[in-house]
Amino acid sequence: MGARQQGGSAIQATSTGGRHPSLHTVKPLGRTLFNRVFATIYAHSILALLFYHAKTLFYSTTLVSFSVTLAFLISDLVLAFFWVSTQTFRMFPVYRKQFPENLKKIMERSDFPALDVFICTADPYKEPPISVVNTALSVMAYDYPTEKISVYVSDDGGSALTLFAFMEASKFATHWLPFCKKNNILERSPEAYFELNHTCTSEAVSIKIIYESMKVKVERVLERGKVDDENITSGQEREAFNKWADSFTRQDHPAVIQVLLDASKDKDIAGYSMPNLIYVSREKSKASPHHFKAGALNALLRVSGCMTNAPIILTLDCDSCSNDPETPLRAMCYLSDPETRPQLAYVQFPQIFRGINKSDIYNAEFKRLYQINVMGFDGLSGPNYLGTGCFFQRRAFYGSPSSLASPEIPELAPDYIVDKPIQSQSVLAIAHQVASCNYESRSNWGSKIGFRYGSLSEDYHTGFRMQCEGWKSIFCDPDRPAFLGDVPITLNDALNQQKRWSIGLLEVGFSKYSPATFGVKSIGLLMGLAYAQSAFWAMWSIPITTYAFLPQLALLNKVYIFPKVSEPWFFLYAFLFLGAYGQDFLDFILAGGSIQRWWSDQRFWIIRGISSYVFGSVEFFLKFLGISAFGFNVTSKVVDHEQSKRYGQGIFEFGVHSPMFVTLTAAAIINLISFSQGLVEVFRGNNLEGLFVQMFISGFAVVNSWPIYEAIAWRKDKGKMPIKTSIIATLLAGTLYTASCFVFL
Ligand SMILES: O=c1ccn([C@@H]2O[C@H](COP(=O)(O)OP(=O)(O)O[C@H]3O[C@H](CO)[C@@H](O)[C@H](O)[C@H]3O)[C@@H](O)[C@H]2O)c(=O)[nH]1
Ligand SMILES: [Mn+2]
User: Ligand 1, residues 120, 370, 461, 493: which to mutate, most atoms within 8 A of Cβ?
Assistant: First the structure.
C-alpha cells in the first residue's frame, strides 16, 4: 500500500550512472521519521517502567512480593530486548523497484548467466511428488534462455516414487514448456494454471489431458508404494530403478544421480531445446551425519558444480512454485549490475503462500518476519536468507568477497568451466563421488564453505554467516508474488514448525557465532541486534508465559499486583501496551494487512509463546546438556479433505493429543476462571480500581482463547480437543492453582 506508491520511476538512473536505462531504484519508506520520534518517547517509558520495578523490588517487604516483582522485571527486560531489537528494523526500512524490461536494452539474451535451480524434497508421503513436479515445471518454463537452466532435484527421502514422478514430468515438460511460451502464460505450474483457467482452448484441453494422465499415474504409484514393471517404459528407466535393491532404505543407500533431461540433446515438441533436469539422491549411511537440508543443499552445490557450475543458483523448497516467469530477470537486475554484484551474495524474494484462510488463523503469512522486518534489514546490509526463493551467486558459498575459500578438488571451484557433456562417464563419476556421505569428512563444507551446519534453521544461519564475511544481500518484493508456497493447515503442524525454528535459532544464538557477540563485532550493532532478535526468538516464552499465568493466579488469590487506575503509574502501563500494540497494528496495516489477520497475528504470537517456544527452549537445553537429540521434522504438505474444509472455514484444528495443547488449554482455563472471579468481585462492589489491570489481562486472554473453549466444550467434529488433552490440562491448571494458594498465602 503506502510502500508500493513510493517506488520511484525508471528515469531516475541510480546504479548505471545515467548512461543506460535504470535497472533498479531504492527509496526509504515514508514512516521512518515517525518511527524514530516514537522510539525516543517509548524508550523513556521503558526506562520509567524499569525504574518502577526496581523501586518496588527495593521496598518489597515479603518474599512473595519480591518474587512476583522480580518475575515481572525479568519479563519486562525480555520485552525491552525485543523492543530495542525491533527498532533496528524501523530505523531505515527501504522499498525497491526493478525494471526487468530494461535488461534487454543492456544485455543480449545470449549473455545471460546460466542458472542452476535447487529443489529439495524429503518425504514422498508428506510432500506429494506431484507437487514437487509442479514446482520443477514452473521454473523449467521460466522466461529465460532455456538451455541455460538446470534443475536439480534433491530427494532426501531416497524414493523411487519421486524419481518416477520426475521421469514422467520430463516427458510432460516437452509439451508444457512450448505451450506456456507460445501462449505467454503467467502460472507456469500446471496445477495452478488449470485451477485458474476454466475457459480452455482445444490446445489447453489436450495439454490438460496429458497432465491429468501423468498425475493419475504418479498418484497410483504412490498409493501402491512401488514402481511396478508396467510403469517402466525403457531399459534406461529399468536400470535406474534397479538401484533400489532390497538393502536400499531411506537412511542407508548409495548415491543416485539420474539425468532426466539433457539440454544439449533433448528437444520439446516444437523442436526447441529443453533445460537440464537432474534427479539427485545423495548417499546416506546411518554412520555419518547428513545435516538435514543444509547437507542436501551442499550435495547439490557439489553435484551441480561438476555438471553445470552455473554462476547463479536459485534455492527452492519443494512447495515453492514460481508464480511469475519473469522472476529470474528481476533478480538479474541486481546480479548483473557491475556496481552491486561484487559484494552481493543473494537476492531474496519474500515467502508468500497460497491457500491461507481469510483470517489466517495460524499466522502462516508471517508478515513481520517475511516482509516488514526484511524491509528493515534491507536498508542496513540486506535481508536474512529465508530458505527458499533466493538467487545466490555461487561464489558467495566459497569464502568472503575478498578471499576465496578453495574446495578440495578443482571441479568444485566456483569459476571452474565444465567442458564435458553432463552425461559423460567422467562427469558422472565425479558427481557420484561428491554426493557420497564421506566426501565431507574433515573438510570445510558446512563450516566455511557452502550452507552452514549446526542449526535446524540452516537458512538463517547461512545468510547470517555470509553477511559476517562481508557479503551484502537485497530484498526483492515485486507486486506479483514471485513464488507461492504451502502452509501448514493444522495447529499441530504449525506449532511443530515453530518449535523447530525456535530450536534452530537458539542453536545459532548460543554458538560461538552468536549474533549478540560475533555478529555485533562483524556486522555492527544494528545488524547484530537485528539478527539477535531472531536468534533469541524463543525467549518470547518468558514474558508471554508469565503474563498468561501470574496475574491470573494472583487475581484468584485476591492479590493485586499492578498500579491502581487512579495512580500515575497506571498510565505508564496503558501507554506501553497501547503504544506497542498500536505501532504493531500500524506496521501491519501499512504492509497491506487486514484487521482480521492482524488480530490472528497477535493471537498466534501468544499461542506460540506458551507452546512452541516453551517446548523448543526445553528441547534445546536438553540437547545442549547432552541429554537428548532432535531432528528436522518436515512439515506435511498433504491435504486431508475434512481438515482442509475446516481450515477454509477458519476453525482451529486440534484433533490429536500434544503436550503443546496442554499448556495452551491450561492457560485458557485459568484465564477464564480468574476473569470470572474478578467479575464476581466487581459485582460485590470490591476494588475495581486495584483489579483493573489483572482483569484486563485475563479478559484479553479469554477473548483470544475463544477457539480453545469451543474445541473443549461444544465442538463435535474430528478437529475438537481430545478428551485426554482437556483432562491433563485441567489437572495442570488445578495443580498450578493449588501451588499458587500456598505461595500467596
Ligand atoms: O532432511 C531434510 C529436511 C527437509 N528438507 C527440505 O527442506 C524444505 C523445508 O522443509 P519444511 O518442512 O517445508 O519446513 P518449513 O518450516 O516450512 O521451511 C522453512 O524453514 C526451514 C528451516 O527450518 C527452511 O529450510 C525453509 O526453507 C523454510 O521455508 C523442504 O523442501 C524439505 O523437503 C530436506 O531436503 N532434507
Ligand atoms: Mn515449508
Answer: 120
Which residues are part of the catalytic machinery? 156, 459
Q: Is the ipTM here above 0.90?
A: yes
Distance from C-alpha of 227 to C-alpha of 120, rounded to nearest angstrom: 21
Instruction: With 0.90 as the threshold, say if the pTM is over it.
Output: yes
292 CA distance to ligand 1 middle (Å):
9
Burial zone of 471 (CB within 10 Å; 0-12 exposed, 13-18 middle, 19+ buried): buried
CATH 3.90.550.10 location in the chain: 110-487
| Residue ID of nearest Cα to ligand 1 atom 19 | 387
Q: What is the Cα–Cα distance from 362 to 366, expressed in whole angstroms?
A: 9
The model's pLDDT over 415-443, given as tens digits with 9 standing for 90+, comes to 999 999 999 999 999 999 999 999 999 99
pLDDT at residue 634 greater than cutoff 80: yes
284 phi/psi in degrees, rounded to 5: -130, 145
Distance, CA of 257 to CA of 152 (rounded, Å): 10
pLDDT of 7 over the 60 cut: no
* Closest alpha carbon to 3 in 532, 591, 542: 591
Distance CA 24, CA 197 (A): 33
pLDDT of residue 197: 75
Ligand nearest, relative to CA of residue 460: 1
Res. 486 pLDDT band, cuts 50 70 90:
very high
pLDDT digits (tens, 9 = 90+) for 689-700: 889 999 999 999
Query: How far is the centre of ligand 1, averaged over its atoms, from the C-alpha of 153 (Å)?
Result: 14
CB 502 within 8 A of CB 617: yes
Which residue, among 125, 128, 119, has the nearest Cα to 153 in the 3D structure? 119
Which residues make up each annotated binding site for Mn(2+)?
Answer: 293, 317
Binding residues: 126-127, 156, 293, 317
For 593, the grid coordinates are: 494487512
Predicted pLDDT of residue 103: 92
Whether the CB of 152 sits within 6 Å of ligand 1: no
Helical residues (DSSP H) of 592-684, grouped into ranges:
595-610, 612-624, 641-648, 659-683
CA angle 452, 617, 608 (to 5 degrees): 100
Instruction: For ligand 1, say whether the CB of 497 is within 6 Å of any of its atoms.
Output: yes
CB 186 within 8 A of CB 481: no
Residue 276 in 3-state DSSP?
A: strand
pLDDT averaged over the chain?
A: 94
For 78-108, the pLDDT digits (tens) are 999 999 999 999 989 999 999 999 998 889 9
Phi/psi of residue 81, each to 5°?
A: -60, -45
User: In angstroms, rounded to a whole number, what is the distance separating the alpha carbons of residues 72 and 551?
Assistant: 10
Q: What angle do CA 633, 635, 640 make, to 5 degrees?
A: 135
For residue 293 and ligand 1, the question of a CB distance below 6 A is answered with yes
* 522 to 92, 468, 527, 745: CA distances (angstroms): 20, 5, 9, 51
Phi, psi of 94 (to 5 degrees): -130, 165
Nearest ligand 1 atom to the CA of 500 is 23
Alpha-carbon gap, residue 359 to 361, rounded angstroms: 6
Length of the chain: 745
The angle that helices 659-683 and 491-509 make with each other, rounded to 10 degrees, is 100
Q: CATH: 3.90.550.10, 3.40.1110.10, 3.10.129.10, 3.40.640.10. Which one for 110-487?
A: 3.90.550.10
| pLDDT exceeds 60 at position 656 | yes
Whole-number pLDDT of residue 687:
76
How far is 529 from 536, CA to CA, in rounded Å? 10
Amino acid identity, residue 713? A
Could you read off the pLDDT of 154-209 as tens digits, one per residue?
999 999 999 999 999 999 999 999 999 999 999 999 999 999 876 678 999 999 99
